[in-house]
Amino acid sequence: MFTAWCTPAFSQESMNDDELFGARLSVLDVSISPDGSKLAIIAPGGKSEEIVYVINIETAGQPKAVLRNNDPLGELIWCNWATNDRVICQLRTVERDQGRLLSFSRLIVVDDDGANAGMLTQPKGANALSIIQDGGSVISWDVDGEDDTILMTREFVPESSNGTQIYSNQEGLGVDAVNVKTLKRRRAEKPRNVAARYIADDSGRVRLMAVRTFKDGYLRGDTTYLYRDAGKDDWNPFEIAEDMVPVAVDSRTNRAFAFGTKDGFASLYSISLDGNETIDLLVHRDNADVDSLLRIGRKNRVVGASYATDRRQIAFFDEELKGLAASLQKALPGNPLIEFVDSSEDESKLLIIASRDVDPGMVYLFDKNTKRLEELLPLRNGMADIEMGTMRTVSYPAADGTEIPAYLTLPPRSDGRDLPALVMPHGGPSARDEWGFDWLAQYFARQGYAVLQPNYRGSAGYGSDWYMRNGFQSWRIAVGDVADAGRWLVNQNIADADKLAIVGWSYGGYAALQSDVVAPGLFKAVVAIAPVTDLGMLKSEAEGFTNFRLVEKFVGSGPHVSAGSPARNADSIVSPVLLFHGEYDENVSVNHSRLMVDALKDVGKSANYVEYKGLDHYLDDSETRRSMLKTTTTFLTEHLGED
What we know:
Elements: H1 17-22, E1 29-32, E2 38-44, E3 50-56, E4 64-69, E5 74-81, E6 86-97, E7 100-111, E8 118-119, E9 138-140, E10 149-156, E11 159-160, E12 166-168, E13 172-179, E14 185-192, E15 195-200, E16 206-215, E17 218-228, E18 235-237, E19 245-250, E20 255-262, E21 265-272, E22 279-283, E23 290-296, E24 301-308, E25 312-316, H2 319-331, E26 337-343, E27 349-356, E28 359-367, E29 372-378, E30 391-397, E31 403-409, E32 419-423, H3 439-446, E33 450-454, H4 464-467, H5 475-491, E34 495-505, H6 507-518, E35 526-529, H7 535-540, H8 548-555, H9 559-563, E36 577-582, H10 591-602, E37 608-612, H11 622-640
Parallel strand pairs: 32-33, 32-34, 34-35, 35-36, 36-37
Antiparallel strand pairs: 1-2, 2-3, 3-4, 5-6, 6-7, 7-8, 9-10, 10-13, 11-12, 13-14, 15-16, 16-17, 17-18, 19-20, 20-21, 21-22, 23-24, 24-25, 26-27, 27-28, 28-29, 30-31, 31-33
């Protein structure tokens, strides 16, 4: 295993739980070179720092740090191999502009020894009339007939020559073919202001374009598509259902893969690109949304689709991979989840992550030729021998009798009776919890808490009826389900009613606060991390951005905006409140927590509030998370008492 070189040394004997579980992932991203000889790994460095390492796995040579981000407001998101000796990485940064937070992405390319770093993202001109936030996306890692060349999107903005006269009116999203060694580029698709995204096939040819529409400068939310025949340049209307979302194109079959809806559930279809738009249903479930593609290799070959029931499942199109996944699940301890992360160009070497509820995951290398499976890297250092609680699937009745699916994690070796307990609603709201390792749930289980994670109505993944109008417009049902989770824990004698609390992040933090509005005192302590606290503010903060109408439509209008806002109902909150928020949170403005604190003060109440400078929604900093866990545990102990 290649552990010691890429991450700080851990001694679990010398670390307590808040340090172990608060630590960032030891491996943030990993990819394999086209020839299968090298890995590129993003690992945490110092505070809010990421380092890209390259290691030759054939020679087991010393790792080489080739790129480093030490900007506390920046983050290296992913790295992938453009050639056998050039790596492309995406850097995301956040800046404050005229009082508003804006995110920027940039693509950087570097040699596998750290030399010849260059920027693939084109800088805006000196006289550009607006900023460029999107630094481009790689839509094809190979272009037939052009060595060392990728296709990447590029955003254009108009430019003026003297501040008044426009000399370049190019505007919108285009596509460039870029040689990653010389950085020379050619125009593959001219910029179009209406273009939202492009999809290339596996030969490196742009075949689909998503077209967006505006009204009064704001996005309307409806998207149409154009397609291109194989070997032709003209764009044609793609006559597909309004809810269809194309995601990939296979040049060999001349078909697009698209997600659409069947009987209220997201499903995967294939659609011919020959002018007939022949549609075939590929994967459909009557109890779960099919929500993602499984793709591997340099050509991003589509090999399956996945969905989650009680745990994540894959419907494979590739029988060899299906058999391999089944064999690995049997061979590795605990019937783990198997994730195919990357592969060499010929797909003979596969990077695989195996993980489960009590195991944060191990990166493996599987060689098809030798049938050898080799451990490479744990996703979290220091946890190999840590005893954790088993996560099991349960359901409980809501007030109207609806059975709500959930996951229950008990403390290790617990009898599951009369415990201090936490309800931990997920964020989103367009999300869901799944079976697998959850660092928060496991941390609290090790502190002696039973942890229940409900997939309340309003969660994604269970079809349109379950999703309802979304967790904000249908907040009464969603938050009611969350409160019923706490009642169930007490009724089942799992929880001591006097030691029941709620902890949530993002929408989960909103649900935690709002649960004390609708069921005051049910939870004896409320912890909200980066919560939404005012639905009206959620809309007003989007004003001036192109997505304002979409946010406005998502949140909705009417009495639910006021009734469903914790900050507007602070007088109903009776339980002690602890809030955390990052100053540079783009997802949910820090003003939501500040408003909540002020609202509680206005009605003669108080809240414990911790604001983290220079951090975003995810508080992805080891020391910060360690502090947050320790502070939360102290707060819960103070208000629930010792176990």
